[in-house]
UniProtKB/TrEMBL annotation:
Its cofactor is Mg(2+); Mn(2+). PANTHER family: D-MALATE DEHYDROGENASE [DECARBOXYLATING] (PTHR43275:SF1). InterPro entries: ICDH/IPMDH, IsoCit/isopropylmalate_DH_CS, IsoPropMal-DH-like_dom. The keyword Manganese applies. Residues 3-337 form the Isopropylmalate dehydrogenase-like domain. It comes from Actinorhabdospora filicis. Signal peptide: none annotated. Pfam families: Iso_dh. Keywords: Manganese, Metal-binding, NAD, Oxidoreductase. This is 3-isopropylmalate dehydrogenase. One of its GO terms (molecular function) is NAD binding.
Length: 346
């Protein structure tokens, strides 16, 4: 039986995860869900971020579904590094998968881009790069302060995520991978990325490739987002580019993600890209689509392809009927999508 650890987290996290669970209830009958209270509330109450015992329990699950972590009451970095990044790093979730599609019924802020025309996935490296914490500070707080933050890139880590991107591209219609870095300036890391990309590409003659510097890629995501299929890039570039990709495809409320450990040596984690949004928390107006789509990615990862497709199709149908300007009711969206999934799976 599939065991899923659920971390609703803070703010709208609890609201959107409740909807994702309604959908899982119909898409994956018989799974067990164990809720873990982690995030700002636990930290403020107990000082705990992610106890080792909880880490071990999480490790025993098939996957993790996470809502959102963070609150203004917690100093920046505590939960990001101690919880979110710890899970990604310690569970070796090296593929940070971030699909973006412009669905019928949604609108892009870009003129001349029509629904159906944008369909891309960013394969963001999830365990290295500038997120590795390789740096330090001298003379902190003084006028002579010096801070360094190094980007850690290994051949092993680079090759495995690039290979994953090619495997995904191979399963898609356009079969195209764009490698994004900044090799004209970041010669060491960029050189490794580019060389590794070219070597792996030689093993995939059926997949077309190109390379873009990250500044150009950021521009092209806005000027011609239709041109992208699969993008593979490092941790920080991927963080930035996926916010742009979300923005041009209807906003962060629709952006799903998976922090994937493809070999399944540890659980993968699925989470909406958006945060805890304290400003709208508790009002029942958060869009649960990103959380629901993240549950869809979870299903796909665990090999439930038919259920995953039903979730995608149900979300597409829900979005197609949206009229712009009409307010979102979180629980109603969850009910409707779950009902559609039930109908599709018969
Ligand atoms: C994201 C977030 C995180 C990241 C933060 C909260 C650590 O921005 O998931 O994109 O930078 O990866
Ligand atoms: Mn981000």
């Amino acid at each position: 039986m599939t065991a899923i650890a659920v971390i609703p987290g803070d703010g709208i996290g609890t609201e959107v995860i409740a909807q994702a669970r309604k959908v899982l209830d119909v898409a994956l009958p018989g799974y067990t869900a164990t809720e873990y209270d982690l995030g700002a509330r636990r930290y403020n109450d107990t000082g705990e971020v992610l106890p080792e015992s909880v880490m071990n329990e999480l490790d025993g699950h098939d996957a993790i579904l996470l809502g959102a972590i963070g609150d203004p009451s917690v100093p920046p970095g505590v939960l990001e590094r101690g919880l979110l990044l710890k899970l990604r790093f310690d569970f070796d979730q090296y593929v940070n998968l971030r699909p973006s599609r412009l669905w019928p019924g949604t609108t892009s802020p870009l003129a001349d881009v029509k629904p159906g025309e944008i369909d891309m996935v960013v394969v963001r490296e999830g365990t290295e790069g500038l997120y590795a914490g390789a740096g330090g500070v001298l003379h902190a707080g003084s006028s002579a302060e010096i801070a360094t933050e190094g980007s850690l890139n290994t051949r092993y880590g680079t090759e495995r995520v690039i290979r994953d991107a090619f495997e995904r591209a191979r399963r898609r219609d356009r079969k195209h991978v764009t490698c994004v870095h900044k090799s004209n300036v970041l010669a060491f890391a960029g050189g490794l990325w580019k060389r590794t990309f070219d070597e792996v590409a030689a093993e995939y003659p059926d997949v077309a490739t190109d390379y873009q510097h990250v500044d150009a890629a950021a521009m092209f995501l806005v000027t011609r987002p239709q041109s992208f299929d699969v993008i593979v890039t490092d941790n920080l570039f991927g963080d930035i580019l996926t916010d742009i990709a979300a923005a041009v495809t209807g906003g962060i409320g629709l952006a799903a993600s998976g922090c994937v450990n493809p070999g399944r040596s540890h659980p993968s984690m699925f989470e909406p890209v958006h945060g805890s949004a304290p400003d709208i928390a508790g009002k029942g107006v958060a869009d649960p689509i990103a959380a629901i789509m993240s549950a869809g990615l979870l299903l796909d990862h665990l090999g439930h392809g038919e259920a995953a497709t039903a979730v995608t199709d149900a979300v597409a149908a829900e979005l197609a009927e949206r009229t712009s300007g009409e307010p979102i009711r979180t629980d109603e969206v969850g009910d409707r999508v779950a009902a559609r999934v039930a109908g599709l799976l018969g």
